[in-house]
């Protein structure tokens, strides 16, 4: 793929490509917003992106995170060679490469403006950085964390966001100011997620096997619910309930919480009472480190599973293939639920994301893959 290096560590740099415009119209090769249930079994890997700016003997970088902007027309990856890559979904092309060699980059996320992003540092310090991609300039640094950031979650209706860190704090931020607006002290808060209304947020604590739910309007108070994953783990090994968590996500219908695991399955939890709806069984685990882990591997996971936008299906990568579960499916007597579809994929899907606006999936390990429904399937 073409790559235009732009060093965002140099404020004086004028190199770059034009501002990426996010028109809401669809290109001829972009799928329509047909019901997910009508096409879920027809997804096929259709566009493969490999970094052509990385030549042997230099190893290919690993993709650490995938995110889409609100209109669903830009896709962004953060990679462990300290770069951010931006792709045009409508045209199916690579558009821009940004470098963060000085500070590193992971957990890159679009704000609600497609030309600005936030991301966590991996070098020098543990600041969160706020970048305008159109003119390659930093808007603000968010200082405060004293250890590696493990999760960034943007509020669904504003540019407020939550960060979790290995310093045992959860911090709440407003992009309009560099100072955090609230801090929670917790033991091992590795993951965070907002419910679709933006009124509730969840914090995942793998060390205690629990998910805490807070009222956003009264977050100074104790959590109003504590879901004990160890207690309701069903057929999962006990270790999977308090280690190796890879993702935490609410479904967009507000009914379920997904707790991803690097072991042999994921937990589908009732968002109201914390009961186990199903253990989403998969063959084998991921080779990547789970969120917050520092030993046993070299590359972190930032989410190998996710909900579809309608909340009905869960997607997950595996050592091979892309797995799909139907949350309306009936688990067996032990709460096991097997995938309803297995989509063939030769590359490991270590990071998985579903486009929030269109029927399109992105998966990655060392390469990025776009998936679209096959009209002939």
From TrEMBL:
<dbReference type="GO" id="GO:0048188">
    <property type="term" value="C:Set1C/COMPASS complex"/>
</dbReference>
<feature type="repeat" description="WD">
    <location>
        <begin position="142"/>
        <end position="183"/>
    </location>
</feature>
<dbReference type="InterPro" id="IPR037867">
    <property type="entry name" value="Swd2/WDR82"/>
</dbReference>
<keyword id="KW-0539">Nucleus</keyword>
<keyword id="KW-0677">Repeat</keyword>
<keyword id="KW-0853">WD repeat</keyword>
<comment type="similarity">
    <text>Belongs to the WD repeat SWD2 family.</text>
</comment>
<dbReference type="InterPro" id="IPR001680">
    <property type="entry name" value="WD40_rpt"/>
</dbReference>
<dbReference type="InterPro" id="IPR036322">
    <property type="entry name" value="WD40_repeat_dom_sf"/>
</dbReference>
<dbReference type="Pfam" id="PF00400">
    <property type="entry name" value="WD40"/>
</dbReference>
<protein>
    <submittedName>
        <fullName>WD40-repeat-containing domain protein</fullName>
    </submittedName>
</protein>
<dbReference type="GO" id="GO:0016070">
    <property type="term" value="P:RNA metabolic process"/>
</dbReference>
<dbReference type="InterPro" id="IPR015943">
    <property type="entry name" value="WD40/YVTN_repeat-like_dom_sf"/>
</dbReference>
<dbReference type="GO" id="GO:0003682">
    <property type="term" value="F:chromatin binding"/>
</dbReference>
């Amino acid at each position: 793929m073409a790559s235009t290096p732009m060093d965002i560590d140099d404020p004086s740099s004028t190199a770059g490509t034009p501002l990426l415009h996010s028109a809401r119209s669809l290109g001829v090769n972009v799928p329509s917003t047909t019901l997910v249930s009508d096409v879920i079994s027809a997804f096929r890997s259709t566009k493969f992106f490999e970094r052509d700016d990385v030549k042997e003997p230099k190893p290919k970088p690993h993709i650490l995170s995938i995110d889409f902007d609100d209109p669903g027309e830009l896709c962004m990856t953060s990679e462990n060679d300290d770069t951010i890559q931006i792709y045009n979904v409508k045209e199916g092309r690579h558009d821009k490469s940004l470098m963060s060699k000085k500070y590193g980059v992971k957990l890159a996320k679009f704000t609600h403006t497609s030309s600005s992003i936030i991301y966590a540092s991996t070098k020098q310090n543990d600041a969160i950085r706020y970048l305008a991609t159109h003119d390659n300039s930093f808007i603000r640094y968010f200082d405060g964390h004293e250890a590696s950031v493990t999760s960034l979650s943007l509020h669904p209706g504003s540019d407020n966001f939550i960060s979790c860190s290995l310093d045992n704090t959860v911090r709440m931020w407003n992009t309009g100011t560099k100072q955090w607006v609230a801090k929670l002290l917790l033991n091992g808060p590795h993951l965070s997620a907002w419910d679709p209304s933006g009124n509730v947020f969840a914090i995942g604590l793998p060390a205690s096997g629990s998910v805490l739910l807070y009222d956003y309007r009264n977050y100074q108070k104790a959590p109003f619910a504590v879901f004990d994953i160890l207690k309701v783990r069903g057929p999962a090994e006990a270790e999977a309930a308090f280690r190796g968590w890879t993702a935490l996500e609410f479904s967009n219908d507000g009914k379920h919480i997904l707790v991803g695991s690097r072991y042999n399955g994921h937990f589908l939890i009732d968002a109201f009472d914390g009961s186990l709806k199903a253990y989403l069984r998969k063959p084998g685990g991921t080779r990547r480190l789970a969120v917050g882990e520092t030993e046993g591997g070299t590359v972190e996971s930032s989410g190998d599973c996710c909900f579809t936008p309608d909340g009905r299906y869960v997607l997950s990568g595996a050592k091979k293939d892309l797995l799909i579960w139907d949350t309306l499916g009936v688990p067996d007597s032990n709460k096991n639920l097997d995938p309803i579809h297995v989509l063939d994929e030769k590359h490991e899907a270590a990071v998985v994301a579903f486009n929030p606006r269109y029927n399109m999936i992105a998966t990655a390990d060392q390469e990025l893959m776009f998936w679209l429904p096959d009209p002939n399937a």
